[in-house]
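Tutorial handout. Part one gives the primary structure; part two gives the three-dimensional structure as tokens.
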Amino acid sequence: MSRNPSQKANLALVALGANLPSSAGSPPESLRFALKKLSQLPQVVPVAFSRFWFTPAFPAGSGPEYVNAAASFRCTLPPEQLLRELHEIEAELGRRRDGGRWQSRGLDLDLLAHGDLVLPDAAVQDHWRRLPPQDQALRAPPHLILPHPRMQDRGFVLAPLAEIAPNWVHPRLGLSVAQMLAALPPQALAGMRPASA
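Part two.
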């Protein structure tokens, strides 16, 4: 598909994670597969990929440790279409989206941000971002929320993301990725370690 020069290319931020084998292989192989597929999408140009990080499962004791990463892309796809593409890559590796939240999985791709878009609007984004932790496990938004409402709370998202987009600023919080990472309590990063080079 050719690029339309009149379309603005936003910086799309994507979090990747896996803690079970998939049809692509081990969790690191699943992430490599997803990064390759993402890089081949029309209207998507890779910018940077983080290292892989090993992260204890969340919530604690819920499964094997995860392999997490982050990727950034210049993208002219609308965010809803990019999210559909992410879900198709997950499905290609056997992901079914009818299970509970925070379960072990062979591949998880989250659209964290699409430029400085706030979707569907500021009030809804603020509501889901402020949702108490006990409700987060029980409720999922019925539509795309951007920025991802949990990104500022998660070390396994922010540590990889800080490697590739430390200066991206959350449009509702006014904080950069580096600042959000620095504000996390120590327990949010407990047990995390980057893969050796």
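Part three, for discussion. The first strand starts at residue 10 and ends at 18. Confidence is low (pLDDT under 50) at residues 1-6.
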